[in-house]
Amino acid sequence: MHTLKEMPVEGYERVLAFRDPAAGLRGFLAIHSTALGPAVGGVRLWRYASEDEALTDVLRLSRAMTYKAALAELPCGGGKAVIIAHPELQRDPAFEAYGGVVESLGGRFFTGPDVGIIPADLAAIARATHHVACGSAAGPDHSHEETALGVWHGMRACLDFAGLRRARPHRARVAIQGVGSVGLQLARLLKREGMELLVADIDPSRARQVAEELGAEVVPPDEILTARCDVLAPCALGGVITVETARQIQARIVCGCANNILATPEAGDELARRGILYAPDYLVNAGGLIAGVEFYLLKRRDSTASLARIYDRMQQVLELAQQRGVSTARVADELAEARLRAAER
Ligand code: NAI
C-alpha cells in the first residue's frame, strides 16, 4: 500500500512524496500546471544521490513539461514523477504502487515512460491505472521516431531561415552529438534528405554503427561541439552549451533533441549575439509528446500534420527573435508563458 505526503512548493499545483516500503518504492510526483488541461509527464527511474536531488529533478522536469505542452498548443499541462533506483527496489510491485498513486489523482495526471523505464514497468503501472501511455504501437515505444521527425521539421525551418537549403540543397553538414534512440533516427532522416553527417558518441559502438549504416564520419566526443559544420545537433545530455562553448561553435544552426541544451540563458544570448540560430529544445523535441497526447488523450491516430507544425512554430520564433533582437530561447519562453496566462484568465 502506498502512502502520500503533500509538499507545498510555490509555483506548483501539487507536489507529492510517495512511498511503498514493502516494494522499496520512494519517489516524488509534481503537477506543475493544469491550466491548459491534465498534467502530462513521464516517470523517470534514476540513481539519485539523495532525495533532495530527486525532488529538484522532478520540479525542473515538470515545469519544463508545462512549457513544452503550452508551446506545442496541446490541451494539457506539465507534470513528472521520479523514482529513486536502489538495490532493494522490487520493480513490479513498486511500479504497480506508483500506478496507484497516479490513479489517486483521478485523471489530473497522465504518465508514461522516461529515462530508465522498460515496457514491463508500464504494464505494471497499467494494472493500477488507465492514466498511462502503455501498450500501443503508436505510443511510447515509438516516441523517439516522432521526436526525431519533430527535430527535423525544426531544423528545416532553421535551414530555410539561414538560406542554407536554397544555397546548397541537400549538402548541409550536420554534426550529431549522441546517436542513441533519437539521434540515430535523426541521422537516418537526415541521410535520406541527402545531408552530410558527422557523429560522436561516448559509446564507440553506436558511433561505428551509424558510420557503417549511413556513411557518417565519426568524430571524437570532445570535438563534436566545435566541429566544422552547418548544423550542430545535440542529442545526448543537457547543459552542453555554456557561454564558453557558444563562443567556439562553428555551426550556423544549433538544433537537437536533448532537453535543456543551454547551460544558462546567457549561453543562448551568446549564440544570438554571434548570429547562430538556436532552435529552442522544448520547441523542436516535442514530437513524441505531441504524438503521445494526440493518440492517448485526444484519440487521434495520425499526428503527421501536428508534427509538421513544428516548422511553422520554429519559423515564427526565428522571425520574432530577429525583429526584437533577442534570443530564440527567450522568445519561446515568452510565447509559452503568454499561452499559460491566457488560459489562467
Ligand atoms: P539515449 O540514451 O538513447 O541516447 C543518448 C546517446 O548519447 C547515447 O548513445 C549516449 O551514449 C550518448 N552520449 C551521452 N553523453 C554523450 C557525450 N558527452 N558525447 C556524445 N555522446 C554522448 O537517449 P534518447 O532517448 O535518444 O534521448 C536523447 C536526449 O533527447 C535526452 O536529452 C532526452 O532527454 C531528450 N529527449 C528524448 C525524447 C525521446 O523521445 N526519447 C523526447 C524529448 C527529449
Quick structural gist:
This protein is α/β, with parallel strands linked by helices and 345 residues long. It is built from 13 helices and 12 strands.
Helix content percent band: 40-55%
User: Proportion of β residues?
Assistant: 15-25%
How many DSSP helices?
13
Global morphology: globular
Uncertain parts: none
Number of strands: 12
Give the structural class: alpha/beta
- Which ligands, by name, code or SMILES, are bound? 1,4-dihydronicotinamide adenine dinucleotide
Q: Please state the average pLDDT score.
A: 94
> In which order are the strands of the major sheet placed?
1-2-3-5-4-6
Major sheet summary line: 6 strands, mixed
Q: Can you write the helix and strand succession as a string?
A: EEEEHEHEHHHEHEHEEHEHEHHHH
Radius of gyration: 20 Å
Report how far apart the termini are: 39 Å
Entry keywords:
alpha/beta; 6-stranded parallel beta sheet; binds 1,4-dihydronicotinamide adenine dinucleotide
Question: Any chance you could write out the topology, listing elements then pairs?
Answer:
Blueprint: E1 3-6, E2 14-20, E3 25-33, E4 39-46, H1 51-71, E5 77-84, H2 91-104, E6 109-113, H3 119-126, H4 143-161, H5 164-167, E7 173-177, H6 181-192, E8 196-200, H7 204-214, E9 217-218, E10 231-234, H8 243-248, E11 253-254, H9 265-273, E12 277-278, H10 281-284, H11 287-296, H12 304-324, H13 328-344
Parallel strand pairs: 4-5, 4-6, 7-8, 7-10, 8-9, 10-11, 11-12
Antiparallel strand pairs: 1-2, 2-3, 3-5
This protein binds 1,4-dihydronicotinamide adenine dinucleotide.
